[in-house]
Amino acid sequence: MGFCIRCKSTWTGLNRAHCVGCHRTFNSVGAFDKHRVGFKCSDPETLGMKMDDKGIWAGRMSEELKNSLRAIRNEPLRHLRGSQGKTL
Ligand SMILES: [Zn+2]
Ligand SMILES: [Zn+2]
């Protein structure tokens, strides 16, 4: 759980990122990075992000990131299976 002494907001979750510039909380570092445009905070809403009922901003990027992580995880398995099939 995180706590910001400046805006008194709290949040839970390991991947949450709280911005000390605009005091918004993001559901991932990726979403946080996205709202930092040219070292300035931009409105997450204009970036296509949505705020949940806990006040945490979630970007579409997090889904893409999840999918790419899934793809990375699956890739070596498929590769391993393929090479085993050839050599054995
Ligand atoms: Zn910010
Ligand atoms: Zn804060």
Describe the overall structure:
The chain has two helices and eight strands. It is an alpha+beta fold and 88 residues long. The strands form three sheets. Strands 3-4-8-7 form a four-stranded mixed sheet. The chain has a two-stranded antiparallel sheet with strand order 1-2. A two-stranded antiparallel ribbon has the order 5-6. The longest helix has 28 residues. It is globular, with a radius of gyration of 18 Å. Bound molecules: zinc ion (ZN) (2 copies). The site of one zinc ion has 6 residues, from loops.
> What is the average per-residue confidence, as pLDDT, rounded to a whole number?
83
Number of continuous helical runs: 2
What series of H and E elements makes up the topology?
Answer: EEEEHEEEEH
Kindly state the percentage of residues in helix.
25-40%
Structural class: alpha+beta
What general outline do the C-alpha atoms trace?
globular
Distance between the termini: 49 Å
Strand order of the largest sheet: 3-4-8-7
Please, how many domains?
A: 1
- Count of individual beta strands: 8
